[in-house]
Design a protein that fits this description.
With 299 residues, the chain is α/β, with parallel strands linked by helices. The chain folds into two domains: 217 residues, Rossmann fold; 61 residues, 2-Layer Sandwich (Alpha-Beta Plaits). The protein has nine helices and 14 strands. The strands form three sheets. Strands 6-7-8-3-9-10 form a six-stranded mixed beta sheet, with helices on both faces. The chain has a four-stranded antiparallel beta sheet with strand order 2-1-4-5, covered by helices on one side.
């Protein structure tokens, strides 16, 4: 069982939102989908849900074409929140669970389990509008997983949450993955994608500009980051061939270099200049790669 996206193009009039996208997301995988606003993420998600038809190409789940009749197999947490503010949490979840083909008795069992897990059982009889933004987000998450979907699409799942609740939801997502749920994950927080996803795709103007295994993407990027802590001015390192960027810090400098050979040259220079408290070569961050490939910060 896997999600196959084969040669998918989606146009709206003369505008091409997605341009010949081909991906495979295996069962049980957590897959990162990144892109600046307007890159085509939401359009791709809507095609995964069967809400939009591709103009060309096809999307299949477990070998079957995705259409609206298969949405009971899919869970979706949208970036724009969609709960009914006047409804009580219990009524909201029962209604949404029934839309996915569940019986009320099943829904109530799952609902109580999730409310306990998220430490909010007291909110069962509260109206959605009475909850904080973070707690509304927990209810929205429960709504997206209550029917135990095979494929789960999470668009900015941690927005509006404090660090404690981010960890709560993160643990829940990882447990769903262990249970075999296939998860497509989008977030503006690059560190979350790096922590949770093995494979990813960066979309830019509807085209995949980076796609593959995260470790291999970092390795093939070539550039490295060097963190240096020293008690003297490191500005002279700017002049070394192969230094891509130089950022002063309180303790020294953070420098991006073209490759490990340049890092070795830096080390010789700083070791000769005086005492070095720290010299560390790091893999490029996902943010570095995004900026390089897309030409803009991801915010």
């Amino acid at each position: 069982m896997s999600l196959h996206i084969k040669g998918v193009t989606k146009t709206f009039g003369r505008f091409t939102a997605i341009d010949n996208l081909t991906l495979e997301i295996p069962k049980g995988e957590m897959f990162g989908m990144l892109g600046a606003n307007g890159a085509g993420k939401t359009t791709t998600f809507r095609m995964m849900l069967g809400l939009l038809e591709p103009t060309e190409g096809e999307m299949t789940w477990s070998g079957n074409k995705i259409d609206y009749g298969r949405t009971h197999l899919i869970g979706y947490l949208p970036e724009e929140r969609g709960l009914y503010p006047k409804l009580k949490v219990r009524d909201q979840l029962v209604y949404l669970g029934k839309l996915k083909g569940m019986k009320k008795s099943e829904i109530l069992v799952e609902m109580k389990k999730w409310l306990e897990r998220f430490q909010v059982p007291q909110y069962e009889t509260k109206r959605v509008e009475e909850l904080s933004k973070g707690n509304q987000q927990k209810i929205q998450f429960i709504a997206s997983v209550i029917h135990k979907p095979e494929l789960l699409i999470l668009d900015e799942p941690f927005s509006g949450l404090d660090p404690v609740n981010v960890e709560l939801l993160k643990e829940a997502v990882l447990d769903l993955k262990k249970e075999g749920t296939t998860i497509v994950f989008s977030s503006h927080r690059m560190e979350h994608v790096e922590e949770l996803c093995q494979h990813l795709c960066i979309l830019h103007k509807g085209k995949p500009v980076v796609h593959g295994n995260l470790k291999e993407i970092k390795k093939s990027f070539g550039k490295k980051n060097v963190v240096i802590h020293a008690e003297y001015d490191l500005q002279f390192l700017r002049e070394i061939a192969g230094v891509v960027s130089y950022q002063p810090t309180n303790a020294g400098a953070r420098i991006q270099v073209e490759n490990e050979g340049v890092a070795k040259a830096l080390f010789k220079q700083v070791a000769a200049a005086g005492y070095v408290q720290k010299f560390e070569v790091e893999e490029p961050s996902l943010h570095d790669i995004f900026v390089e490939k897309v030409g803009t910060r991801y915010e």
